[in-house]
Structures are given as C-alpha cells and as structure tokens.
C-alpha cells in the first residue's frame, strides 16, 4: 500500500511539474495579447475556476478563517503581489523570446530560498549550502559580465517566487484556498487596469477572436490544475522527493526555449547554467544528507 502511495505521489508530482514546464508552449499562443491583459484574464478565470472547486469541496470555511486575522490578510496581500509580479514577468518573457532567462530564474529559486533562510529566518548554512550559494553568485556574475547588465528577468522571477514561498510558509491555508484568495486580491488591480485601458478604447476582457477567448479562459483552469496535482504529490511524498522533482519545470522550459522556440544559447550563458546546475547538485546532495540523517 505504501509503495502504491509513493508511486501515486511521483505521478502527481510529474504531472504538476510537467504542466508548469510546458507553460511557455501554452502562453506563447497568447503572445499577440499584452502580458497585462493575459494576467488580468488569468486572474479572473482562475478565481472563478478555483471558486467552483471550493464550492464542490465545501471548503469555504477555510477561506473564511483567513479573514479572522489581520496579519494573515496582510501576508495574503503580499503573497498576491509577489505571485502576480512573477506571473507578469513570466508572461513578458514568453512573449519576448526570453524563456531561457525565465528557466534560469526558476533554476535559481531553490538557491534563493537558501539565501532567504539565512537572511530572514536566521538559519545556519552548512559548507555544502555555502558552496551552492557561491556557485549561484558566480553564475550571476558571469551573466552580468557576458550580457553587460543585470539579468533582470532571471533575478525577478527567482526573487519573487522565492519570497512568495517564504510568505506562503507563514500562512496556514491550503494551496487551493490560498490560490483563490491570491487571485481575488489581484482583481481590484486588474479592474483598474481594464478601466484605464477602456478609456483609451481597448477592451481587456472582450473583443478577442474565439480561439484567443478559449485560451484566455483556459489559462484560469491551467493555473489551478498543476497546483492541485502538486498538493496531491506533497501529501504522498517526502520533502526530498518533491525537491528533486522540482527541477523538471525549469528543465522543460529550457528545452522548449532551445529546441522548440529556437532561442540562441551563448557559450557564456551555457557556463552560467553549468554553474547553477552544479550548485543545485551540491544543494540537493546536502538536502538529501539532512533528510537521511537520524533525528
């Protein structure tokens, strides 16, 4: 029975990270729509879709519990700002042939988490973790020298997603309820943006051709489905297994960028990825040793 549960967890994890990894293929079909328009539609339809799921599961009491604490509401607003910013930069990267940079950002995220643990949670790093951080910093220094400026797409994606994880860790709310609350918090900003655009004659939510409309509506469901699979995986797997599966997402993004979209790969950029991958190997080995170590 335990073996079946573990296999089911791996299957759910593979499904979640594969869906996230193929996001660039889906959102490239919406490259003709501005990233902020896509974000607005994505937030609205994700809120609707997840709201239906909460109704089917009869879990609105979990949502209501969040509003009993001012601290939790504040953390929720911060989380919404962070994940909304992350989505927007990712959509911009996909529309502007910067998927290689976005994959680098998501590869960097675990190492950003290590740094945040050091700086914010005052966690102590072992030698291997320090080495993984040093390799990540060397990769960023190499990128800056190679391209002549900060790799802002990679840094913003890694920074926002890493910080989002830190904030969400302090919110005692499940993934589905949290996503509904986060998209709900985005709606006032999306409404203001739509009103501003309407003043200049541009409709954010209407006027699209049927295929685009289907994709925009589908983006809401696509936002929620991998999260549900991920939640199912975390219930069945240990943290070490979930952590190792996490690299599937940026790997698929990287492969898509090079082999499907034909984005160029410079030698200096390959060196940056090599340093990051080495850092991730060191970090993963350190995490595995911690996990295997008896309490």
Protein architecture, described:
This protein has 295 residues and is mainly α. It has one domain (2-292). Helices cover 81% and strands 0% of the residues. It is built from 13 helices and no strands. The longest helix is centred in the last third of the chain and has 27 residues, at 210-236. It is globular, with a radius of gyration of 20 Å. The mean pLDDT is 86.
Q: Topology as H/E string? A: HHHHHHHHHHHHH
Strand residue content:
under 5%
Separation of the first and last Cα atoms: 26 Å
Structural class per helix/strand content?
mainly alpha
- State the major sheet: none
Task: Please give the radius of gyration in angstroms.
Answer: 20 Å
SSE layout and pairings?
Elements lengths: L1 H20 L1 H6 L6 H23 L2 H7 L3 H26 L3 H21 L7 H21 L4 H18 L5 H25 L10 H27 L2 H7 L2 H13 L6 H26 L3
Helix pairs in contact: 1-10, 1-12, 3-5, 3-9, 3-10, 5-8, 5-9, 6-7, 6-8, 6-12, 6-13, 7-13, 11-13
């Amino acid at each position: 029975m335990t073996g079946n549960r573990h296999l089911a967890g791996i299957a759910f994890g593979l499904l979640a990270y594969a869906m996230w990894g193929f996001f660039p293929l889906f959102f490239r079909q919406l490259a003709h729509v501005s990233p902020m328009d896509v974000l607005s539609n994505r937030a609205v339809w994700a809120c609707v879709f997840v709201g239906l799921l909460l109704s089917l599961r009869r879990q609105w009491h979990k949502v209501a519990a969040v509003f009993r604490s001012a601290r939790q509401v504040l953390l929720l607003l911060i989380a919404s700002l962070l994940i909304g910013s992350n989505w927007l930069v990712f959509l911009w990267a996909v529309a502007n042939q910067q998927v290689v940079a976005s994959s680098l950002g998501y590869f960097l995220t675990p190492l950003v988490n290590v740094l945040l643990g050091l700086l914010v949670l005052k966690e102590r790093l072992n030698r291997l973790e320090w080495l993984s951080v040093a390799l990540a910093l060397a990769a960023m220094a190499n990128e800056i020298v190679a391209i002549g400026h900060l790799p802002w797409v990679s840094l913003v994606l890694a920074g926002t997603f890493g910080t989002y994880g830190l904030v969400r860790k302090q919110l005692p709310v499940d993934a589905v309820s949290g996503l509904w609350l986060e998209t709900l918090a985005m709606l006032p900003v999306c409404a203001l943006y739509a009103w501003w655009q309407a003043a200049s004659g541009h409709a954010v939510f209407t006027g699209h051709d049927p295929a685009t409309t289907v994709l925009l509506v589908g983006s809401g469901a696509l936002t929620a489905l991998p999260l549900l699979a991920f939640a199912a995986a975390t219930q069945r797997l240990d943290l070490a297994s979930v952590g190792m599966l996490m690299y599937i997402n940026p790997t698929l993004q990287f492969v898509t960028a090079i082999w499907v979209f034909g984005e160029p790969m410079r030698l200096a950029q390959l060196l940056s990825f090599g340093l990051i991958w080495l850092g991730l190997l060191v970090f993963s080995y350190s995490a595995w040793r911690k996990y295997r170590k008896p309490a």
